[in-house]
């Protein structure tokens, strides 16, 4: 005569089976979502690359046209800057330290993106002796995010190792992959604030070969202050 299986054992088996089914369903949904994100990422990367090339070609054409007419083409004012802190806090004033904290430049060799406007330019003027900054090109923005990018997740610094992480935090702003993030930062799009807040301040290395002198401005053969497009050369040495 066979023994009857206790009711508690039956319930445990049923719960275990249901749990496995739920997990299987979740995994299937996740795999489907990852495929959708990957497809979007490829399409948007192609779209953005085409957009960047068209912008470059248009700029060349405008410069050539101006040259033919015997004049100069004035490029639009930059909207994006990348700032790197190059000095410590021994001689900073209270206001300078507050601005550095506000910009998340708490440590030497930390860097952040910033939208350029009257307010931010005024702040840069106050902290000029402690930072160097300039106008990053798309290759520099991409290199920083891909090679040194970390995200702010639950107030913790997490390396950006997948598009899924970006999707989870920024999908409501139509930013779902790395190239979306690069594009939003580089073009200073309408959701720049959210994209930039998602990024943790970049931790860079001391530049190869070191700095010449941080006490002099860049225009006086030193290091601090605005170095315009030459920020791209410096960032390459610090990534």
TrEMBL record:
One Pfam family matching this protein: Ribosomal_L30_N
SUPFAM superfamilies referenced in this protein's UniProt entry, alphabetically: Ribosomal protein L30p/L7e (SSF55129)
Gene Ontology MF terms: RNA binding; structural constituent of ribosome
GO BP annotations, alphabetical order: maturation of LSU-rRNA from tricistronic rRNA transcript (SSU-rRNA, 5.8S rRNA, LSU-rRNA)
Record keywords, A-Z: Ribonucleoprotein, Ribosomal protein
Domain (Large ribosomal subunit protein uL30-like ferredoxin-like fold): residue spans on this chain: 81-131
A cellular component annotation (GO) from this entry: cytosolic large ribosomal subunit
Residue ranges constituting the Large ribosomal subunit protein uL30 N-terminal eukaryotes domain according to the UniProt record: 5-76
Keyword match Transferase: no
Ribosomal protein is among the record's keywords: yes
InterPro entries for the chain: Ribo_uL30_ferredoxin-like_sf, Ribosomal_uL30, Ribosomal_uL30_CS, Ribosomal_uL30_euk, Ribosomal_uL30_euk_arc, Ribosomal_uL30_ferredoxin-like, Ribosomal_uL30_N_euk
Superkingdom field: Eukaryota
Family of the protein in this entry: Belongs to the universal ribosomal protein uL30 family.
Protein name listed in UniProt: 60S ribosomal protein L7
Organism: Anaeramoeba flamelloides
């Amino acid at each position: 005569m066979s023994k009857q299986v206790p009711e508690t054992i039956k319930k445990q088996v049923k719960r275990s089976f249901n749990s496995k089914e739920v997990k299987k369903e979740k995994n299937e949904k996740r795999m489907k979502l990852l495929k959708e994100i990957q497809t979007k990422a490829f399409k948007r990367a192609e779209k953005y690359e085409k957009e960047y090339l068209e912008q470059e070609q248009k700029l060349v054409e405008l410069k050539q046209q101006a040259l033919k007419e015997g004049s100069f083409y004035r490029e639009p004012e930059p909207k994006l800057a990348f700032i790197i802190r190059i000095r410590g806090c021994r001689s900073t004033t209270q206001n300078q330290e507050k601005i550095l904290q506000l910009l998340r430049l708490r440590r030497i060799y930390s860097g952040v993106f910033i939208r350029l406007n009257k307010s931010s330019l005024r702040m840069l003027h106050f902290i000029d002796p402690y930072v160097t900054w300039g106008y990053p090109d798309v290759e520099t923005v991409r290199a920083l995010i891909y090679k040194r990018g970390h995200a702010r997740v639950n107030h913790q610094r997490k390396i950006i190792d997948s598009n899924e992480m970006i999707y989870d935090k920024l999908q409501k702003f139509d930013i779902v992959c790395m190239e979306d993030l690069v594009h939003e930062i580089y073009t200073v799009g309408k959701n720049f604030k959210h994209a930039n807040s998602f990024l943790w301040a970049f931790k860079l290395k001391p530049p190869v070969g070191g700095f010449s002198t941080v006490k002099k401005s860049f225009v006086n053969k030193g290091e601090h202050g605005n170095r315009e497009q030459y920020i791209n050369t410096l960032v390459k040495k610090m990534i």
